[in-house]
Structure formats: structure tokens, C-alpha cells
Write a structure and sequence with these properties.
InterPro entries: AraC_XylS_family_regulators (IPR050204), DUF6597 (IPR046532), Homeodomain-like_sf (IPR009057), HTH_AraC (IPR018060)
Number of domains: 2
Order of helices and strands: EEEEEEEHEHHHHHHHHHHEE
Domain HTH araC/xylS-type: 148-246
GO molecular function: DNA-binding transcription factor activity; sequence-specific DNA binding
Radius of gyration: 19 Å
Protein name: AraC family transcriptional regulator
Structural class: alpha+beta
Keywords: DNA-binding, Transcription, Transcription regulation
Strand content: 15-25%
Number of helices: 11
Helix content: 40-55%
Distance between the termini: 9 Å
Strand order of the largest sheet: 8-5-4-7-2-9
């Protein structure tokens, strides 16, 4: 294994979409919200008293998960771009779908020890540097596979919204079956399911500044408001209005800048 100082670096934003941190007031429970978005997330938790920490992997969700945790002093979450968790974590995204597992179950001893290493970090930047180095040392080879590249190209097409999901395979020159296999392995859900999460996330973002659900439904790509309500019920487990009220009262998790954090890779 190469020494840490010998590792070249690449910009972390290539692989990671966002990093968020939250520290609830002492004694206050932490409300966690995981909406379907086709992302895999690495979660570091420092427990109250700062004597114990752990790292979890949250796979892509097919249905929202709401949890309230007590005894947590602070968290840092690192959300991978769709299709990039596989080479960095070393496990198919489909094995993590709808699961939250200790990193130790994925990496073994190295995953179990990372929590303690992050607990010793003196700043958020230090946390990110240690996470980046751990990811680099676990990165798989070949780093970019053909199936991973195909899945990420499909992700871009679906997020841009310029083509219906039925036409993605034709645009990329592969069969629908081949695309679904590559997409599920690298993203954790199929292309049709991912397209639904894209639409849902559009609606969630719009709802932050508007309560006009008919307009939101039209602008987000739903057939009508009834379609939006049905999707919210199935994917989130709440009506749009109930979700909006819940979202309005939750603690904001500040987004951290990624540009200052280099990611070493072998």
C-alpha cells in the first residue's frame, strides 16, 4: 500500500456532491431525513461526550426514511455523486439499497477504526482529509469501469430531463436490459426508479419557496397534481403538504465547501 504522502490527488467534487455538518444543542435529539435521490452517503457521528464515534454507509433509498437519534454530538455527511460510490467503497451500490450499515461491515477493520480516527480530527477540514485518504486507500481497480461510465452517462441524461427514460438506452447505444444492469449495480436503483427520484427532488426544491402544488407538479414534470400527490405518498409516505410542514421545522444542515478538500487516489 502506498504511503499517504505518495498519493496523487484529484478534486473531491468529482466524486462527492455535497458535504453537510450539523451539531444539535447538547441534549437535543437529532432528526435525520433521507429522501429517495439515488445517492449513497457516508455518515460520521460523534456521540455525546466526544469519547466515541462511528461511520455508517446509507445506501440509496426507494422510500423516505425519517429517524430521530439521541446522544449524537455532531455529524458530518458526505454524499457521493450517483455512480461513484462503487469504486470508492468497493461494494456494488445495489448491495446497499435501502440499508444503513456500519462501514466496518463493508471495509472490515479499516471501517471500524475510521470512526476513532475521525473523532480525533481537530476540524471539519481534518475530518474530510482523513475520509479522503481512507477512500483513496480502498479505491478499487480499475477505478473507472465501463459499466460505471455507462451508468453515469445515463444519470446525466435523466437529470438534464431532455429525454424520457425509455429513450436513454437507445441514446447510449445499449439494450434496456444492459442499461438497467449497469445502472442498478452502480447507482443502486434502476433508471426508471432514478427518474422518479429526480422528479421528486425537483418538487422538493420548488416547495421550499412555493405552496402552489399545481404549478410545482407541472414544472417538476408530473402529469398533474394528483400524480404528484401519489408519488409523494409512495416515495415519502406523506402528502406534499404534510412533508412541507415537517421540512419547515427541521434543523438546517450547513453545506460545506468542497473545493478545499483534495481526494488522494492511488
Amino acid at each position: 500500500m502506498a504511503a499517504a504522502m505518495d498519493l496523487p490527488t484529484l478534486a473531491l467534487p468529482r466524486f462527492v456532491e455535497e458535504v453537510r455538518a450539523v451539531a444539535p444543542p447538547p441534549g437535543q435529539a437529532l432528526d435525520l431525513e433521507w429522501l429517495p435521490d439515488g445517492r449513497t452517503t457516508l455518515v460520521f457521528r460523534a456521540l455525546e461526550g466526544a469519547r466515541e464515534g462511528d461511520v455508517w454507509v446509507a445506501g440509496p433509498r426507494t422510500r423516505a426514511l425519517f429517524k430521530t437519534k439521541t446522544g449524537v454530538a455532531r455529524t458530518v455527511t458526505l454524499r457521493f455523486r450517483p455512480g461513484w460510490s462503487v469504486p470508492l467503497l468497493g461494494v456494488a451500490a445495489s448491495e446497499l439499497t435501502d440499508r444503513m450499515v456500519p462501514l466496518g461491515d463493508v471495509w472490515g477493520r479499516a471501517g471500524r477504526e475510521l470512526g476513532g480516527e475521525l473523532l480525533a480530527a481537530r476540524s471539519r477540514a481534518d475530518v474530510m482529509e482523513r475520509v479522503a485518504r481512507a477512500l483513496a486507500l480502498r479505491a478499487g481497480h480499475p477505478f473507472e469501469t465501463a459499466s460505471g461510465k455507462l451508468a453515469r452517462r445515463a444519470v446525466r441524461l435523466l437529470e438534464e430531463g431532455e429525454i424520457r427514460v425509455e429513450g436513454v438506452a437507445d441514446r447510449l447505444g445499449v439494450t434496456a436490459r444492459h442499461l438497467r444492469r449497469a445502472f442498478t449495480e452502480n447507482v443502486g436503483i434502476g433508471p426508471k426508479e432514478f427518474a422518479r427520484t429526480v422528479r421528486l427532488q425537483r418538487a422538493v426544491r420548488m416547495a421550499a419557496t412555493s405552496c402552489d402544488w399545481a404549478r410545482i407538479a407541472a414544472d417538476a414534470g408530473y402529469y398533474d397534481q394528483a400524480h404528484l400527490i401519489a408519488d409523494f405518498r409512495q416515495l415519502v409516505g406523506l402528502t406534499p403538504g404534510a412533508f412541507s410542514k415537517r421540512a419547515g421545522g427541521r434543523m438546517t444542515q450547513p453545506k460545506l465547501s468542497l473545493s478545499e478538500f483534495p481526494l488522494p487516489v492511488r
